[in-house]
TrEMBL record:
The lineage of its organism: Bacteria, Pseudomonadati, Bacteroidota, Chitinophagia, Chitinophagales. Residues 52-182 form the ATPase AAA-3 domain. It comes from the Bacteria. This is MoxR family ATPase. Pfam families: AAA_3, AAA_lid_2. Residues 259-326 form the ChlI/MoxR AAA lid domain. InterPro entries: ATPase_AAA-3, CbbQ/NirQ/NorQ/GpvN, ChlI/MoxR_AAA_lid, P-loop_NTPase. It comes from Chitinophaga qingshengii. PANTHER family: MAGNESIUM-CHELATASE SUBUNIT CHLD, MOXR FAMILY PROTEIN.
Length: 333
């Protein structure tokens, strides 16, 4: 046991030094993005834990600006794809084009070949396009004709969806929603932040451009360290209890939730909850996970993985309400 505690101490020191760039990134992004600390923090968790992020919020909340600024600060390649009902898979992944000089077909790569992909209003495109994006997200590779291409690392898909207009949108299938590590719901800025936003936009000369403070290779190194963050068996059990409570609420004295949940979190939920908690601990410059890390990240990892029944919708019960009940009922280690 003595050995383990000294190992954890060493790991803690190592991670405390290695995670210093998180503050650098936050400072750099703070030059352009006012408020939205929560969203930026979640983007970094997705980046460090190698997971994709689904952002939900009304237009004009700096979603595009945030990811664009983040890719500039990491010196990575950024690509934005506006999803529309007439979008084709080839518009996303690329296609084969006939070259007359060479008398052969050559591959023209699509915008998906970048480090950061902003899939804007993802629910506006039909299922065929969704499945092309799904292969990229899950397999981290693209097939064009007979050729398969590995995607660059780091590779992060940030999809946005607008919660208000549902005309002409395609609901994302559960299988695809499950591929997103986090679903982040973004709110409006405070009055003070909004005043700052107005001033910043009325005086564009004063804005300082974003510098690259770290390189993509630094992110790859940080990802390896994130997986080394120490997680005690008690924390693992806590994560499993939270996920199992969404599947069998009656085992946790939550019988009243049974008729409200149509399906609970998959094993992917447990994996992502553990990984995101490790990434959160890393960002807080700690070499070990505490229960608070799990609770902090729980809603973002789980809100899109708990299916609601018609009864829940009729009673205006949200997945957040269910998760709050579960977090209050499951014993904290």
């Amino acid at each position: 046991m003595e050995n383990t505690s000294s190992d954890i101490r060493q790991l803690n020191e190592k991670i405390h030094q290695a995670s210093a760039f998180v503050d650098l990134l936050n400072m750099e992004l703070g030059k352009v993005i006012v408020g939205q600390r929560y969203m930026v923090e979640r983007l970094l968790i997705g980046l460090l834990a190698q997971g994709h992020v689904l952002l939900e919020g009304v237009p004009g909340l700096a979603k595009t600006l945030s990811i664009k600024s983040l890719s500039s600060a990491i010196n990575a390649k950024f690509s934005r794809i506006q999803f529309t009902p007439d979008l084709l898979p080839a518009d996303v992944v690329g296609t084969m084009i006939y070259n007359q000089q060479k008398n052969e077909f050559v591959v023209r790569k699509g915008p998906i070949f970048a480090n950061f992909i902003l899939a804007d209003e993802i629910n506006r495109a039909p299922a065929k396009v969704q499945s092309a994006l799904l292969e990229a997200m899950q397999e981290r590779q693209i097939t064009i004709g007979d050729n398969t291409f590995k995607l660059d690392d780091p590779f992060l898909v940030l999809a946005t969806q607008n919660p208000i207009e549902q005309e002409g949108t395609y609901t994302l299938p559960e299988a695809q929603v499950d591929r997103f590590m986090l679903k982040v719901v973004i709110g409006y800025p405070t009055k003070e932040e909004e005043r700052h936003i107005i001033r910043q936009n009325l005086n564009p000369e004063a804005a300082t451009p974003i510098r690259a403070v770290i390189q993509p290779a630094d992110i790859m190194d940080a990802r390896k360290l994130v997986r080394e963050v120490y997680m005690d068996e008690k924390i693992e059990k806590y994560i499993i209890d939270i996920v199992f409570a969404t599947r069998n609420p009656e085992e946790y004295k939550l019988q009243k939730l049974k008729p409200l949940i149509s399906y609970g979190g998959s094993p992917r939920a447990s994996i992502n909850l553990a990984l995101a908690a490790k990434a959160y601990a890393f960002m807080k410059r700690r070499g070990y996970v505490i229960p608070e890390d799990v609770r902090n990240i729980c809603f973002d990892v789980m809100r899109h993985r708990v299916g609601l029944t018609y009864e829940a919708e009729a009673e205006n019960v949200t997945s957040e309400n269910i998760l709050s009940e579960i977090l209050n009922a499951v014993e904290v280690p």
